[in-house]
Amino acid sequence: MKAVVLTEPCKAEDMKITEVPMPEVKTGWVLVKVRAFGINHSEVLLRQFEIAQDYIRHPIVPGIECVGEIADPSDSGFSKGQRVIALMGGMGRSFNGSYAEYALLPISHVFPIESNLNWDELAAIPETFYTAYGSLRISLQLKSDDTLLIRGGSSTVGIAGLQLAKAMGAKVISTTRSEKKADLLRGYGADDVILEGADFLKRFLEKYPAGATKVLELIGASTLRESLRLTTIHGIVCHTGLLGGVYGLKNFDPIKDVPSGVYLTGFYSNNPTLRQITDMMALIEKGDIHPIIAKKFTLDNISDAHLLAEQRGQIGKIVVTI
After folding, report:
1. 112 vs 108, 138, 205, 282, 304, CA distance in Å?
2. Quick one: which of 268, 274, 316, 278 has its CA closest to 296?
3. How many CA atoms lie within 13 A of 131 on its CB side?
C-alpha cells in the first residue's frame, strides 16, 4: 500500500510516498481503509523535529486522525465496510497513523458514525471537533443560558467551538485580530466579535460588565490571566489552546491570579469515548454543521498540504483524500 513514512526530521518538500506492506490484523485492533484525514499542527511539529525524540516510534507513518471504512473487523464487533472515525490514543506516534491507504488501529479509538456528510467534511471533524466538544461539554459544562467567550475564535478549533456552542443554544462572543475574520465569525453565528489587542480587558468589560460565564481559552498562557479576570463568579475558564506561542506562565500564583470563585480547568483530547463521540456527532447533525475546509489535497500531494499547514492562518481544516 501507499504511505508516508518518516525516519528523521525533514522539510515538507522532502516528504515522499512509498510502498509499504499491508498491516497484519491482530487481536484488539482493526484494519481501516482510510478515505480521508485532516492535517494537524502536531503532525507538522512531528515532521520538523519531534520525530527525533526517543518516545516516537521509528520509522513512523504520521497522522493522528482519519475517517474511513472497516476493511477487517478482527474481534471488534464492527462490520466490514462500516463507516468509522479514529483519533488519538498514540496514532502516528506510538504506532502507525493515517497517512496511508490503510491503518491498523486499536479498537478503543475507532468509533462508528452515521452521518450524511461526505468524506471530505467528515475528515475535518475528528480531532478538531472533539477538542472543541470536550472543552465545551466536559470541561466548561456549557449550558444554553451561558455567555461563552472564545479567545482565538477564528482558529479551526475556535470556529468548531462556535458552531457547537450555537447548537447547544449558548450566546457566543468570539475574538480575532482581523476585522475580515470578524465578519466570517458573525456569518457562522457569533453573537458578537471583539478584536484582540490593546486594552482588550477594558474594552470587553465596558461592553459586558457582568463578564462571561464560560471562557474557551485558545490563545493560551499569554492571555490566561486576563481571561480569568473577565469571568463571572462561579464561571469557568478552560485552557485548551496554545495559539499565542507561550507554553507556561512564570510566577503564576493560583491564589492571586485565579479570582475567588472562578474555576480554571483544561482539556486534553487523547481519550475519547464512544458516548462522547456519539453525542458530538448528534450535535453536529442537530446544528446542521458543515465543517470549513481550507483546501483539499490528495495523498500524492502531501508535501503541498504540509507547506500550507506551516503557513498557518488559513480558515478551516486542510484535508487529504485517498
Report:
1. 11, 21, 44, 13, 31
2. 316
3. 23
> How far is residue 100 CA from its own chain's centroid?
20
Helix (H/G/I), strand (E/B), else coil: 201: helix
> 50 near 33, Cβ under 8 Å?
no
Helix (H) or strand (E) holding 151: strand 147-151
DSSP H stretches of helix in the chain: 41-48, 119-123, 126-133, 156-167, 179-187, 200-207, 221-229, 254-257, 274-286, 302-311
Sign of the C-alpha dihedral computed for residues 182, 186, 189 and 191 taken in this order: positive
Distances (CA, A) of 131 to 40, 106, 171, 241, 292: 12, 20, 19, 9, 16
Q: Does the model's pTM come out above 0.85? A: yes
Query: Is the N-terminal amide bond of 9 cis, ω within 30° of 0?
Result: no
Q: What is the pLDDT of residues 8-51, one digit of tens each?
A: 999 999 999 999 999 999 999 999 999 999 999 999 999 999 99
* Predicted local distance difference test score (pLDDT) of residue 123: 98
Residue type, 9: P
Place of cell 467551538: 161
- Residue whose C-alpha cell reads 520509522 in the numeric block: 59
Q: At 249, is the pLDDT very low, low, confident or very high (cuts 50, 70, 90)? A: confident
pLDDT digits (tens, 9 = 90+) for 95-110: 999 999 999 999 999 9
Distance CA 44, CA 62 (A): 9
Alpha helices in 69-170 (DSSP H): 119-123, 126-133, 156-167
Q: Is the model more confident about 179 or about 298?
A: 298
